[in-house]
């Protein structure tokens, strides 16, 4: 299977600057996610989207992880356009890509892979995603 797991190496969280690098459980949220990605035993390419040299240097301490340049992540979560927020993924050649957010330290890395397997087992190839929406549906102008 042609699959990539991409860890978003953004530094900032919704509630603060450099949130992903702040101390957390004798580590940081980003380091916890990097450890999970490194130890993931799955047939996939493992990438980290790096916004700057500091994050790229941190990734260099973990074997088996490749970096992709994503300088727009310095403004995370201020990137409102999906095409800008995911622009760094265009350089990847894999057919299936799972983007992982490091803000959830209690989600096990094996669960990431289970999500991929479950998706591939139930979905045909597609280029869009779909979600069930309860309640009213609105246009981009805000009209029902």
In what order do the strands lie side by side in the largest sheet? 5-4-1-6
Radius of gyration: 16 Å
Please provide the count of β strands. 6
For the termini, the CA-CA separation is 41 Å
Q: What amount of the residues lies in strands?
A: 15-25%
Biggest sheet layout: 4 strands, parallel
Q: State the low-pLDDT regions, or none.
A: none
Mean pLDDT rating: 81
Structural class: alpha/beta
Order of helices and strands: EEEHEHEHEH
In helices, the fraction of residues equals 25-40%
Task: Tell me the number of helical segments per DSSP (H or I, 4 or more residues long).
Answer: 4
Shape, per Cα inertia axes: globular
Strand and helix layout:
Layout lengths: L2 E6 L14 E2 L2 E2 H11 L5 E6 L2 H7 L6 E4 L12 H4 L10 E5 L8 H14 L22
Parallel strand pairs: 1-4, 1-6, 4-5
Antiparallel strand pairs: 2-3
Describe this structure in words.
The protein is an alpha/beta fold and 144 residues long. Helix content is 25%, strand content 17%. It is built from four helices and six strands; from the N terminus they run E-E-E-H-E-H-E-H-E-H. It has helices at 29-39, 53-59, 82-85, 109-122, and strands at residues 3-8, 23-24, 27-28, 45-50, 66-69, 96-100. Strand 4 (45-50), helix 2 and strand 5 (66-69) form a beta-alpha-beta unit.
Quick summary:
The chain is α/β, with parallel strands linked by helices.
Could you list some keywords that capture this structure?
globular; 4-stranded parallel beta sheet; alpha/beta; 4 helices; 144 residues; two-stranded antiparallel sheet
